[in-house]
C-alpha cells in the first residue's frame, strides 16, 4: 500500500478552488451570495436579478436586468424534434432522468462553443420548459408553450398547470434559496467536468446526474415520502424511534457544513408557517412534530433540519408531484453550477486526484490459476 498520501474520504475539508461567488458559515448558519446575505436577497430581489448577481458579480442596473430578463424569456422554447423525442420516453421515467437526457440532447443543437454565458442562459431558460413539458407528457395532457411576457417563475407554473399562481412570487424566492451553495457535490462534479474544457451541456449533464442522488438533491423527495408514511402527528415518535433502532437515516436532518440550523430551512419554515395561517399546507404539522422530536432525541449532537426538510412541503403546496422536486432544485442550481464552472476555467487546471492502491502485485499470468 502507498503510504505517502493521506486519504480524505469525501474530500471533507479539502479546498479545491478559490471563489468569490458564495460563502457559507456553518457555525453561524449564514449563506452569502456575492456579499449579500440570503435573507436580504429573498426579501428584496428576484430570481432573474439574483442570477445576474451570481453570474456577473454585481447587482444589475435597469438596462442590465432588462437584458437578462429578455434573454431568458426568448430562449424558453424547445426544438420541436426534442419535444417529439420526449414523447417517446417511457412514461415511468424519473423526471431527473428525463432532464439529464434532454440537456444532453440539447448539446447537439448548440454548435461547437465551449462553456459560455450564452449557453448558461440558454439552459437556464430551457430547463423549466423541459420539466413542465415532461409533467404534461407524462400525464397525457397537451403541453403548454412558454410565454415571453411572464417572469421566470410565473412562466414555469403556468406551463405546468395552465394558470398563473397567486403565490408565484413565493415560488420565485425558493429558487433564490436553491441557486447557489458553494462547493457541494454537484457543483464540484460540474467543476471537475468543466476543468477538461468541455461544453456547458456536458457540464450540466454531469451536475444533474450528481444532484439526482438521495444524499444530495434527491433528499427532498424522500423527506415527503417519510411524511406520507408517518400519516399522522400521533405516529411521529414511533416512526422516528423505528428509524433510529434500525439505524436508518432520518431524511432532512444534518448537513456536512451547517452545524446549526440551515438558514434556508429556517426561511422555508417561516414561509410555510405564514401560509399555514390562511391555507391548507399538508404535512406541516407532522414536520413540526418530527423536528421537535428529533431535536429532543439528538440535542447534544447538533443535528438540525436542512433545506430538504421543508422544501418538499412547499413544492407539494404548489401541487408539484414529489418525483419532480429535485428537478426544481436543478432549475435553480444551474445558476451556481454555471457560475462556478466559468469562474474556475479562468485559471483552469484539470482535476487529477489519485487513489491509494491496496491490491496485490507481482502476479504472473501463466502461473495464475483460478480456484
Quick structural summary:
The chain has 371 residues and is mainly α. The chain is 53% helix and 3% strand.
Descriptive notes:
The chain has 371 residues and is mostly helical. It folds into 2 domains: 22-214 and 322-345, Citrate Synthase, domain 1 (Orthogonal Bundle); 219-317, Cytochrome P450-Terp, domain 2 (Cytochrome p450-Terp, domain 2, Orthogonal Bundle). The protein contains 16 helices and 3 strands. The protein has a 3-stranded antiparallel sheet. A hairpin with a 2-residue loop joins β2 (30-33) and β3. It is globular. The mean pLDDT is 92.
| Total count of domains | 2
Backbone CA Rg: 22 Å
| Shape call | globular
Q: What would you call the structural class?
A: mainly alpha
Give the amount of beta strand, in percent: under 5%
- Straight-line distance between termini: 25 Å
* Unreliable parts: none
The appropriate CATH architecture of the largest domain is Orthogonal Bundle
Give me the count of strands. 3
Mean pLDDT across all residues, rounded? 92
Helical content (DSSP H or I, runs of 4+) = 40-55%
Strand order of the largest sheet: 1-2-3
Order of helices and strands: EEEHHHHHHHHHHHHHHHH
CATH class of the largest domain: Mainly Alpha
CATH homologous superfamily descriptor of the largest domain = Citrate Synthase, domain 1
Oligomeric state of the chains?
A: single chain
Give a quick set of tags describing it.
about 375 residues, mainly alpha, Citrate Synthase, domain 1, Cytochrome p450-Terp, domain 2, 2 domains, three-stranded antiparallel β-sheet, 16 helices, 3 strands
